[in-house]
Amino acid sequence: MTQPLHIGIVGCSAEGAALCYRTICAEGARRLGAHRHPPVSMHTPSLHDYVACLERGDMDGVAALMLDSARRLRAAGADLLICPDNTIHQAFDRVERASPLPWLHIARVVARSAAARGFRKLGLTGTAWLVASDVYPVALASEGLACVRPTDAEREVMGRIIMDELVAGQVLPQSLSVFQSVVAGFRAQGCDAVILGCTEIPLILNDGNAGLPTLDSTRLLALAALDRALG
């Protein structure tokens, strides 16, 4: 077997990055045999630094943080890069132009998966920053898919739950009810699936409790990276 590529994870929040890392390692063992997976390195600056940039709308600052991680990961031997955080993909175009290594784009990975599964109209969950951005509408449109955003009120309450609870690993029953209500609204608008567009949302929402099929951006990105690493 050819030596697998070295995967570099550009981390943002701990929970999303950890779930992505665990998925690569666990699925690697299923594909390659017990305890086997490609080499993986991760660099994660303080989440506070990313949040400060997002709050002032500083995408150049977000890109600088991502590129600093990219350079550090190249120095550690990484061959390709992924970022298990949907929100900071708003800076991806700036990052890709200056990156020392190739990347997989999380929303493009999700869009390809949605198209392959035959979905046509996707509801979008995520932080207030993410659902107000063009990250997913553009990626989905490239596959001929429609994107339905939550209401302003829904995006604010989801954003609060994500940033105050999920990034800290807290999962509360009342917060699950909020997400289920948002998904019910998507279903009423004719959506046939929902994007878990924040890498922490899989902590609270899944195929078993969402009310629609889910597209787990965290695990889909991890599996796409593993596919690329294994050639």
Q: What is the ordering of alpha helices and beta strands?
A: EHEHHEHHEHHEHHEEH
Spans with pLDDT under 50 lasting ≥5 residues?
A: none
Arithmetic mean pLDDT: 97
Strand order of the largest sheet: 5-4-6-7
The biggest beta sheet reads: 4 strands, parallel
Instruction: Tell the overall outline.
Output: globular
How much strand? 5-15%
Q: Specify the structural class.
A: alpha/beta
Number of strands: 7
Taking the alpha carbons of the first and last residues, their distance comes to 10 Å
Number of discrete helical segments: 10
Rg, Cα atoms, Å: 17 Å
Helix content: 40-55%
Describe the structure.
The chain is an alpha/beta fold and 231 residues long. Helix content is 51%, strand content 11%. It contains 10 helices and 7 strands. The chain has helices at residues 14-32, 47-55, 59-75, 92-98, 106-116, 128-131, 135-141, 152-164, 173-188, 217-230, and strands spanning 7-10, 40-43, 80-82, 121-125, 146-148, 193-196, 214-216. The chain has a 4-stranded parallel beta sheet, sandwiched between helices. It has a 3-stranded parallel beta sheet with strand order 2-1-3, with helices on both faces. Strand 1 (7-10), helix 1 (14-32) and strand 2 (40-43) form a beta-alpha-beta unit. Helix 3 packs across helix 4 (92-98). The chain is globular, with a radius of gyration of 17 Å. The chain starts with 6 loop residues before the first strand and ends with a helix. The model has no long low-confidence stretch (mean pLDDT 97).
